[in-house]
Amino acid sequence: MRVPHTVLLAEDDRAIRNALARALTLEGYEVTAVSDGAAALEQATATAPDVLVLDVMMPGVDGLQVCRELRARGDRTPILMLTALVETADRIAGLDAGADDYVPKPFEVDEVFARLRALLRRAGKEPLPAPAAQDPNPTGPRDLTAAGLRMDPSARRVWRDEREIELTRTEFDLLELLLRHAGVVLDHATIYDRIWGYDFGPGSKNLAVYVGYLRRKLDEPGAPQLIHTVRGVGYVLREG
After folding, report:
1. Cys-Cys crosslink for 151: which of 75, 104, 158, 192, Cβ 3.0 to 4.6 Å?
2. For the purposes of burial, counting CB atoms within 10 Å of the CB of 189, is it exposed (0-12), middle (13-18) or buried (19 or more)?
3. For the whole model, what pTM was predicted?
């Protein structure tokens, strides 16, 4: 069994740091989160992470300085920069400092995940193996069932009728939350807090994106939609 990839995250904004650390953990990474560049340098030396995620603008030692110092040491660990600087010159400065890629703020976590996967592949680190397929088990006492869905939370598997549905970690967590509260309207703030650990605010599309992913995987032609939008409030799982 492969151990999770390790991520060292340095971000001075506490809300962003906590939210991104939780999202990465839910996606299967082992995360160490620090609030400044000096701590990032110390942790990078002590723990040798598989990949670093660095904010550019940090007080004291910033992300660019962290990059330069690590590269000067001969450390080739992949580095993904988070930056609110959008000018081409700023991006070039980051790449010249030794960064491998960057994501502009504000960002969607799915883009961060995709860029991390690409960096890890380039570094020769294989993704974690998918679990071996098994035949669906009879409904067990701890299975969750509602609206034609059946979920085994311990095995992290879910079926609509007889069709097993493959979900990412975040998709599964979101569906489990909705399934455990089937028929109850969950507001945006509650869902953000339970899944990401932080409400990204009214301008975020993160939740709507994941609901869209789930709908594409759950819905079937001619069958009732299962996840319903309650405008101005949130979402509810119910049939019909």
Report:
1. 158
2. middle
3. 0.53
